[in-house]
Specification:
Elements lengths: L16 H16 L4 H21 L10 H16 L5 H23 L4 H21 L1 H4 L24 H22 L2 H11 L1 H6 L4 H27 L9 H14 L5 H20 L4 H15 L3 H15 L2
Helix pairs in contact: 1-7, 2-7, 2-10, 2-11, 2-12, 3-4, 3-10, 4-10, 7-10, 8-10, 11-12, 11-14, 12-13
């Protein structure tokens, strides 16, 4: 069999040096910055959430402003299961993913008939409606107070959660690695290539006999399941879930992180989410009132001068250095 060229779409499942270095850097942070493991866990969870959104927007061309619905459903499902006495953490994450996927399978065939601005407005409205419904359903969601008192059993019956966040960090990193490998397989499969064809020209894909809506719905379901995984991890790492997981702000943040890092290719999430989260954390500590100004200026600079986000800018710079220009 003739080996695939390295730049082929179907060879994207292969590990690249930059990806291995990113994982090694994430693992090194565990030893170098033990005082920031709680922040690091949140960053890893956001990377996972942005990866799920990249499959939807970067590979399928579906611009949704309601992605936080699946993240929030996963988070609340984990909280409800814990309060009901189901505290085994891995199975809780799987059930949360199934719940988010089921919701996506239910609404996807209707939402994905829309495109462009109508799709954006409907998904935005869906996010607002779900948030307001959760706000009013105080007995179920805890309202503004959220759901406290959430506890989970040791991971695999061995690893205690602890207060320093060390276990949660490695646990989130393990889930992130698993999801990343799965996503690499998906986007490099014929199904992933089909999604990219739909993103580029859905009318042409229909003309050559492809069924666009079922493929988009399946991508929507997979993306929602991964967002549900991220939500469940968020609840397990924080032992708490509040309405913020369902807020429209969360959907906007995910979009900003992906644009910042670079849409498509999966690597934008690995860069955009850490840059955004770390900049937000440290700039808000420096000035709690003007941190959004700093992020806004960075986003403007990246959009105007850095095609492909931070990652695209770095790649352009490296090409120029190699050419000596």
């Amino acid at each position: 069999m003739t080996p695939l060229p390295r730049d082929s779409i179907l060879s994207r499942h292969r590990w690249r040096l930059g990806e291995l270095l990113w994982l090694l850097a994430a693992l090194a942070c565990y030893f170098v910055f033990p005082q920031y493991l709680a922040l690091g866990t949140t960053v890893l969870i956001m990377v996972l959430l942005v990866l799920s959104y990249d499959l939807l927007l970067g590979f399928s061309g579906v611009l949704s402003l309601g992605h936080a619905v699946f993240f929030g459903l996963g988070a609340y499902t984990a909280g409800w299961l814990s309060l009901a006495g189901w505290t085994e953490p891995v199975s809780v994450v799987i059930v949360a993913a199934i719940a988010a996927a089921a919701l996506a399978a239910l609404i996807g065939p209707f939402l994905l008939r829309l495109t462009g601005l109508p799709l954006m407005m409907v998904t935005l409205a869906l996010g607002v409606l779900v948030f307001e419904a959760a706000h009013k359903a105080t007995p179920l969601t805890g309202g503004d107070d959220g759901l406290p008192g959430i506890q989970f059993s040791p991971i695999l019956g061995v690893f205690e959660w602890g207060l320093g966040g060390a276990t949660a960090y490695l646990y989130a990193l393990a889930w992130l690695c698993g999801v990343f490998v799965l996503l690499k397989r998906i986007v490099s499969s014929p199904f992933g290539v089909m999604l990219q064809g739909v993103r580029e020209n859905p009318a042409r894909m229909r003309l050559i006999g492809n069924r666009v809506l079922p493929h988009l719905t399946l991508a929507y379901v997979i993306s929602a399941a991964m967002a549900g995984v991220a939500g469940a991890l968020f609840t397990q790492a924080n032992a708490f879930v509040g309405l913020g997981v369902l807020a429209v702000d969360t959907s906007i943040d995910v979009l900003v992180m992906l644009v910042l890092g670079g849409i498509g290719g999966l690597h934008g999430a690995l860069v955009g989410a850490p840059v955004y989260m770390l900049l937000k954390h440290f700039s808000s500590q420096w000035n709690p009132f003007y941190w959004m100004l700093i992020i806004g200026l960075l986003l403007i600079v990246v959009v105007l001068f850095g095609r492909g986000g931070v990652l695209g800018s770095l790649q352009t710079l490296m090409r120029r250095v190699r050419r000596g220009t």
